[in-house]
Specification:
It is a single chain. The strands form two sheets. A 14-stranded antiparallel β-barrel has the order 1-2-3-4-5-6-7-10-11-12-13-14-15-16. It has a two-stranded antiparallel sheet with strand order 8-9. It is built from two helices and 16 strands. It starts with a helix and ends in a 25-residue tail after the last strand. By secondary structure, it is mainly β. The protein is globular.
Length: 318
């Protein structure tokens, strides 16, 4: 039992310090979590809910919930953000990030666009001392728990998009590298949020009038010397159904499938772990649900959301 607790605590530390952003296999469907420059780049308002259960069957394994939304404001501005909650063993990391972006039109036909975005985040770290047993009675690192303070930081991103076909973005997280004493020690201990960089891009190839191929890639580099890349390929049928997979180096292979019905989008992924922990768990599960709201067009046009005005074709791109 003691070993399991130690492993769970190690997972918690890894999640909150080394990775510093929740793992997400279906990242290509919610770009603003990675890059605030993507805020407000859709011609609809996506309200996105995501749930991930990592390493199912392993005691203390991480679970993550995320809720996000963003929208274009006026001709060139975007605003949005997301709430997140990561639980790993006895540790919980919860918070909010608010994004703002300025979207530049690089061509008169509006096919080429560049979004420059800034995100401000506030994160709270909490430790459940009731789930831990220590060798040392009244260990101050446990008995005093985490400070329930909100730690601020910032994210910047540049996001280029070409119609609904291609995109590429660069972003940096934890720009302020906030230093906070997470414990109630008499002597302050600094815990620095390490700066992390992301390169994120993709392109959708049109195969014929029914089939397309959506390809994406993600590279993240942590200044502590850790890097990871992910590549994915999805076959898309009639802009309504998709299936495929991805590979995350030294970690997992992922199978994905999803469906778009009107304004609703649903996706599911299953991770097959390659690391040594594969013998102790049954894989990772992730689902998301997105509601795509189309704003009013003004001049009494009302909403174009399909169940309110059914005489319009509603087929946003996957």
């Amino acid at each position: 039992m003691k070993n399991l607790v130690l492993i769970a605590f190690a997972l918690a530390v890894f999640t909150s310090t080394a990775q510093q952003i929740s793992l997400n296999s279906q990242y290509m469907f919610n770009e603003i979590v990675i890059n605030p420059g993507a805020t407000g780049t859709k011609d609809y308002i996506p309200v996105h809910l995501n749930f991930r259960k990592q390493w199912a069957g392993f005691e203390g394994a991480p679970t993550t919930q995320t809720a996000s939304a963003h929208a274009a404001v006026g001709n060139n501005l975007g605003f949005g953000g997301f709430l997140f909650n990561d639980v790993a063993g006895p540790s919980r990391r919860s918070g909010v990030q608010l994004n703002g972006a300025y979207n530049l039109r690089l061509s008169r036909d509006k096919k080429h666009n560049l979004g420059l975005g800034l995100g401000m985040s506030f994160t709270q770290h909490i430790l459940d001392i009731n789930s831990l047993e220590t060798e040392l009675p009244d260990d101050p690192a446990i008995a005093r728990s985490f400070n329930h303070q909100f730690v601020p930081d910032a994210t910047f991103g540049a996001y280029y998009s070409f119609e609904d076909k291609g995109f590429f973005g660069l972003s940096a997280r934890n720009l302020l590298q906030s230093r906070r004493d997470l414990f109630n020690f008499d002597q302050t201990f600094s815990n620095t949020l390490v700066r992390t960089y992301y390169a994120f891009g993709g392109y959708t190839f049109t195969l014929n009038d029914k089939w397309g191929l959506k390809t994406t890639g993600l590279l993240d580099v942590i200044e502590a010397g850790v890097f990871q890349f992910d590549v994915s390929v999805l076959a898309v049928y009639n802009k309504m159904f998709w299936f495929g997979g991805s590979y995350r180096n030294l970690d997992a292979g992922v199978a994905m499938a999803g469906l778009q019905l009107g304004a609703f989008k649903f996706g599911y992924s299953y991770d097959i772990t390659f690391s040594d922990i594969r013998s102790y768990q049954t894989g990772s599960h992730e689902i998301f649900l997105e509601l795509q709201l189309t704003p009013s067009q003004g001049n009494g046009g009302g909403s174009r959301t399909p169940w309110l005005k059914r005489n319009r074709i509603y087929a946003p791109s996957i």
